[in-house]
Design a protein that fits this description.
Radius of gyration: 17 Å
Shape: globular
Strand content: under 5%
CATH topology: Leucine-rich Repeat Variant
Number of helices: 11
Helix content: over 70%
Order of helices and strands: HHHHHHHHHHH
Distance between the termini: 38 Å
Length: about 190
Amino acid sequence: MNRVRFVEILEKTSNKLEYRDLLVNACLQNPQWVTILLNNMEQIEGDYSNFSARILELTCKENLEIIIPHLNRFCELLSKAKLNGVVRACAKLCELLMIEYFTKNNYHFKNTITNEHLKKMIEAGFDWMITDQKIAVQAYTMQTLYLLGAKFDWIHFELALIIEKNIPTGSTGYKNRGRKVLKAIKTNTRLKL
């Protein structure tokens, strides 16, 4: 697949599910095309922003290192993301990055992800936790912030306050994830999901 066809499918295809694997594989073979996905994700009203975000998320699940050359731009996007699908994908990518950084102790990620990147993830994460977001966004963000609390100890206290405040009115998924995160914070143990 060439670049023109990649963009055409992203922007004009009505049956997007049919082309998802094709686009992911094309992006894995052409890592520079991550910039196309990020460009689309920045379009606040673009119909294809959510689809591009989903393709980036699925591509990164296959090969997370593909996002490394684009970390600055990705982290800048976090505070600008507004569409549900874009926010969800960003939250998931933050979670994946923090798992590599903290639990897998991936040397490449530890040397590439800067404190500035982490601060942008923290800022976006707390914003997502206190605004009206879908449960998936908040669940991914709980995990991300919990992991970040290993480096920035104040995070656990703030995260626990937000979760405790929202659990009574949260969905079943929010309550389940929230209780697990609170237990891990209170017992100072590793979060098991």
